[in-house]
Specification:
Elements (H helix, E strand, L loop, with lengths): L1 H18 L28 H17 L15 H6 L2 H27 L5 H27 L5 H29 L10 H12 L1 H12 L3 H17 L6
Helix pairs in contact: 2-4, 2-5, 4-5, 4-6, 4-9, 5-6, 6-7, 6-8, 6-9, 8-9
């Protein structure tokens, strides 16, 4: 009987320790991605599913770009070197678009890490952004196919317009969070830093508008502007600004 009583007391004490999280102090909860979990403000939703869906769409879009890099036919009419050289528009368009989508993913990842939650407007804007990203493999293939043939100017305008709309939607998403819904942020962001983020994002739409207009003269100017924009954003913001 005494053994049973001691066993019951030990079991009850162990159960209380488990329910209470143990006797040791526990650290802050994690969201599974190495970030300290922060409860979403009332009336908003978590960002987990939105982030997972966004990563999936972006991964598919950036993978589809490579499908336009086809192996040349082994017909013997020309050497492999000549056949590969003839595909240079495909290589160039692939690199530019891969770089652009990769930069979008970096900026999107940065924005998502700042969010503690999302409202319906964030979800809607993010969905439109993903729609724009998903069409980039098509516009890339269009640009590569028509670069050196009649129709190249129109292809350049379509290509630049796709980047213009994508950058404008992303800017709208950032502005909605940083200006209209700052309570969605995991931590307050200084006003100066918010302005710097938006100023940097605001450079893209007019630059791609210029790229489209230059494409009416020659598609190569469109590609040149897109390359410069990719390098600019890949370099990241200046330290302290």
């Amino acid at each position: 009987m005494r053994r049973r009583r001691r066993w019951r007391r030990a079991s009850a004490s162990s159960g209380r320790a488990v329910r209470g999280g143990g006797s040791g102090a526990s650290g802050p909860p994690s969201d599974g991605a190495g970030r300290e979990s922060v409860a979403a403000p009332a009336g908003v939703m978590g960002t987990g599913r939105m982030e997972a869906f966004s990563d999936g769409v972006i991964a598919v879009a950036i993978t589809l770009l490579v499908l336009d890099l086809r192996v040349p036919d082994a017909d013997g009419a020309r050497s492999l070197a000549d056949a590969l050289g003839a595909l240079w528009p495909n290589y160039l368009a692939y690199v530019i678009s891969f770089l652009a989508i990769g930069i979008i993913w970096i900026n999107h990842h940065t924005l998502m890490r700042r969010l503690a939650g999302a409202d319906r407007s964030v979800l809607a804007l993010n969905l439109v952004l993903l729609m724009c990203i998903a069409v980039l493999p098509f516009t890339t293939s269009l640009m590569a196919t028509y670069l050196d043939v009649p129709g190249g100017r129109l292809a350049a305008v379509v290509y630049a317009t796709a980047f213009l709309v994508t950058s404008a939607v992303f800017l709208a998403l950032e502005a909605h969070v940083l200006l209209r819904r700052p309570h969605l942020l995991r931590a307050p962001l200084p006003a100066g830093e918010r302005r710097a983020v938006l100023r940097r994002g605001a450079l893209a739409p007019p630059a791609y508008l210029l790229a489209g207009l230059l494409g009416l003269a020659t598609p190569y100017l469109t590609l040149a502007v897109c390359v410069l924009m990719g390098l600019f954003y890949l370099a990241g913001p200046r330290r302290g600004g």
